TrEMBL record:
This is Pentatricopeptide repeat-containing protein. Residues 23-36 have a biased composition (Basic residues). SMART domains: SMR. The keyword Transmembrane does not apply. InterPro entries: PPR_P_subfamily, PPR_rpt, Smr_dom, Smr_dom_sf, TPR-like_helical_dom_sf.
Length: 844
DNA sequence: CTAGGGTTAG
């Protein structure tokens, strides 16, 4: 095609994924077309993953760097010394030995330990004296240190109250007889605090141990590394690991496993993670199955399917063996890549190794299907799991809930909640966030408020996702002031913001045309070290020209050059919701300032190497439609060239009425069609709107027909019914023309129209007021202007109807066809003029 | 010391 490879790929992959764009494609949608298999199609061609044809020994020698493999780990992961230094049996056996469990600790605990635990569980927190009293009365019966560790574990597992565990620790330390015993208690409390998500307290108590001279042990360091690992704080874990070595404490295999685990979870570059692994080998410490499982999880996180498969195979070759964790992690890698076919094929493999799939296996697979929107298959697995007698746990319930939320099966949400209640599974923050999303989507803000109160009562702490979710649901409902208040509440929460939180609030601002405010927020987030991603930018670009309210003194002027200021934003939103409509000082000035802002954004995107995707293009096209002049729009469109000359060529060509652009447009349309419906229809809507807006009405019509041919808008076009509810106003208007023309063609062939022909506009997707659909008004105006004999149905204001006979008579009138035919304001001569097939079919 | 779940643009 006429394109050179664009400097950026067009895709809508999530920023944290590592895309491997199909080099042939301009447009690429990750969610629907997982890329992992594309990069190496033969990778899993055998149903047996450890077949002889697989990559034996790849970890032992640097892999030959073929183009397909160059992005895989080409590493001598295991040097020859590893092979010699161990027999596979020793490692296998070590892994098979029963792990030290909570159960074994329970057995070692004395009756007194069980008693004091019960007492402490019902004692109140603020009563430190009481705690000391209880401890004093049991002291002589408690075994040191085992019983104390047992109590700590119990408090952690059952009470889930970090301060109480901490208080018990501090009260118990003086009772320990030496550093070793103190160290054991310290390790226990660090582990518990880490488990409870309080890595901050874990660090404090660790530092306390160090200062008191009993913390400088391999156990304490490992526990702290693991505490950070659990909470996804990989850099902290790595720095503790360094500190450990600097303090002269030699890491053991648990320390290495913990740091490798932290890296895998925390999204550390896989090469760095593997670096720890190599170091481990160099220091003569044997990796075990957990090491490999953690490495595998690292591959999963990084989306490196091929590396995961190599590891998965190597585990057998090296005699490490696989366990349920190995299989589940590997299945997860496949699910993350969307390769469900292969993911389910792992099950027979597991069974032949006498490992039964468990609730984790099922929830992984269910979620894999759900991510591909294959909800039915996900629910089938749920049924299968139930029939196998596998009890759902909290994670699995949450997975199920998210499937119901995504698929809009709201009545099932209630059922699942009741079921959880009956079984005695408490909702956690993920459950609450899902429920908030679900009920928010239904507009049940009463239930949302109840959920927030309920969380507070049950002591479940909100997290940053709760706030982003709330902002999103309020924003989608047009409750912008509520959305803004969520952001200000967040600032007082003391939680750490992330890119999604900022993007959500920026979206709220952008939806109200507050482009400048949005850019201030962009600055603010960068100042506190949060990098914007393509979503952040797309959101702002899309906000251009959306201003639908006026503010005293103008939004720009009052705060020009200043920083984002909460009070000012509050004031703006206050005015917004009070419907204060005051004349803007100069609307045109604001718009040109905003345009300037947007142009600056493109530069920032390029500087920060944020890759635009098809949504960026849609946003730019929409922004063009909102420009005050053709010149401004051209200026904006020109920026598209920086990103992708091919897409630019098509858009600009169509805008200028170049017939030649249609050939390239065809291939662009085909690429867009490979993406999911909402993504592609948004692009068609944006492109059509721009063409329509700038007078290229025949061009707009052609784009719409291309879309119809490719079924971009589901079931939009029937012979006698037109459903416009998924279309933008330009697209809808172009569509009405085409549809009426096609009916006219039908009539001219001698066919009769049915009793009633109708046009559906829906009620408007994001309209604040029911029935106040802008689309409906646009269509009404259009129908009036051409004198089409349609009227709104009495009890369905989203539907225009006309008796077939009347429509037919109107279409037969002499001037009607002329009215319906669309023309371009600009056209440029083309080399052999060809009518598009879609237009020929309509005999236009 | 190892596995699975929740959020953003169109």
């Amino acid at each position: 095609m006429a394109s050179s490879t664009p400097p950026y790929s067009i895709n809508t992959s999530k920023p944290h994924q590592s895309p491997h764009p199909n080099p042939k494609s301009h447009l690429h949608k990750q969610q629907k077309r997982p890329h992992r298999l594309q990069s190496s199609p033969s990778m899993l061609s055998s149903s047996s993953y450890n077949s002889a044809s697989s990559a034996h020994g790849k970890f032992l020698t640097p892999s030959s760097s073929t183009s397909l493999q160059s992005h895989h780990l080409s590493l001598p992961l295991l040097g020859p010394e590893f092979r010699r230094s161990r027999t596979t049996k020793v490692i296998s056996k070590r892994n098979l030995s029963s792990p030290r469990t909570y159960f074994s600790q329970t057995r070692s605990a004395s009756a007194a330990a069980v008693d004091i635990t019960a007492r402490l569980l019902c004692s109140s927190l603020d009563d430190i004296q009481g705690l000391k009293g209880i401890l004093g009365s049991f002291q002589h019966k408690l075994k040191i240190p085992e019983d104390y560790c047992f109590v700590l574990h119990e408090l952690g597992n059952r009470d889930k109250c970090p301060p109480k565990a901490l208080a018990f620790f501090h009260a118990s330390i003086p009772l320990m007889r030496n550093s070793t015993e103190k160290g054991k208690l310290l390790t226990a409390v660090i582990g518990i605090l880490g488990k409870l998500g309080r890595h901050d307290l874990a660090r404090q108590v660790f530092d306390f141990g160090l200062s008191q001279g009993f913390g400088n042990t391999v156990y304490a360091y490992s526990a702290l590394i693991s505490a950070y690992a659990r909470n996804g704080l990989s850099s902290e874990a790595m720095s503790v690991f360094s500190l450990m070595k600097a303090s002269g404490v030699r890491p053991n295999n648990i320390s290495y496993n913990a740091v490798i685990d932290a890296c895998g979870k925390g999204g550390v570059d896989l090469e760095i993670t593997v670096g720890f692994f190599r170091e481990m080998l160099q220091n003569g410490i044997c990796p075990d199955r957990k090491t490999f499982n953690s490495l595998l999880a690292g591959c999963s996180h990084a989306g490196r399917l091929e590396d995961a498969r190599i590891l998965f195979d190597e585990m057998i070759d090296l005699g490490i063996g696989r366990d349920i964790y190995t299989y589940n992690t590997f299945i997860d890698v496949l699910c993350k890549g969307g390769n469900m076919k292969f993911a389910v094929e792992v099950i027979p493999d597991m069974l032949s190794s006498y490992i039964q799939p468990n609730v984790v296996t099922y929830s992984t697979l269910m979620d894999g299907y759900a991510k591909l929107e294959r909800h039915d298959e996900a629910l089938n697995l749920y049924m299968e799991m139930k029939s196998m007698g596998i009890q759902l746990d909290r994670v699995c319930y949450n997975t199920l809930l998210s499937i119901y939320v995504k698929s809009g099966r709201y009545e099932d949400i209630t059922r699942v909640c009741e079921e959880m209640e009956v079984i005695g599974i408490d909702k956690d923050i993920i459950t609450y966030n899902s429920l908030i999303t679900g009920y928010g989507k239904q507009g049940r803000f009463d239930i949302v408020s109840y959920l927030i109160r309920d969380m507070r009562e049950k002591g479940v702490a909100s997290n940053v996702l709760t706030y982003s979710t709330l902002m999103d649901i309020y924003s989608k409902a047009g409750m912008y002031e509520d959305a803004a208040n969520v952001f200000f509440d967040f600032k007082e929460s003391g939680l750490k913001a992330d890119v999604v939180l900022y993007s959500s609030f920026i979206d709220v601002l952008a939806k109200n045309g507050l482009v400048k405010c949005a850019v201030w927020l962009l600055d603010e987030m960068q100042q506190i070290g949060i990098e914007p991603n393509v979503v952040t930018y797309n959101t702002i670009i899309d906000g251009f020209g959306k201003s639908r309210f006026f503010v005293e003194g103008g939004i720009g002027n009052g705060m020009a050059g200043g920083k984002a200021n909460c009070n000012q934003i509050v004031r703006i939103f206050g005015n917004l919701t009070k419907d204060i409509i005051q004349p803007m000082v100069d609307v045109a000035t604001k718009k040109s300032e905003d345009l300037f802002c947007i142009l600056g954004l493109f530069q920032r995107m390029i500087q920060q190497r944020v890759k635009p995707n098809v949504v960026t293009f849609s946003a730019i096209l929409n922004a063009c439609s909102r420009c005050d002049s053709f010149e401004d729009a051209s200026l904006l469109l020109e920026q598209l060239r920086l990103f992708d000359s091919f897409v630019y060529g098509v858009a600009f060509g169509l805008l200028m009425g170049c017939r030649d652009a249609w050939l390239r447009a065809q291939s662009l349309f085909d690429e867009v069609r490979c993406m999911d419906n909402s993504t592609s229809s948004a692009f068609y809507n944006a492109l059509t709107d721009m063409l329509w807006h700038y007078g290229q009405r025949r061009g707009a019509q052609q784009v719409v027909l291309e879309g119809v041919q490719r079924q971009v808008w589901e079931n939009t076009w029937n012979e006698f019914t037109l459903d416009l509810h998924l279309m933008s106003s330009g697209a809808a208007q172009a569509m009405v023309h085409s549809w009426l023309l096609s009916m006219s063609a039908i009539i001219s062939k001698g066919q009769k129209l049915p009793q009633v022909v109708s046009i559906l506009t829906g009620w408007g997707k994001h309209s604040k007021v029911t029935g106040a659909s802008p689309l409906r008004r646009v269509i009404q105006t259009l129908l009036n202007s051409i004198g089409a004999p349609f009227h709104l149905e009495r009890f369905n204001i989203g539907r225009f109807v006309s008796p077939g006979a009347i429509a037919s008579a109107w279409l037969r009138e002499s001037g009607t066809i002329t009215l319906l035919l669309l023309h371009d304001e600009r056209s440029q001569p083309s080399s052999p003029l060809t009518l598009l097939p879609s237009l020929q079919a309509l005999q236009l």
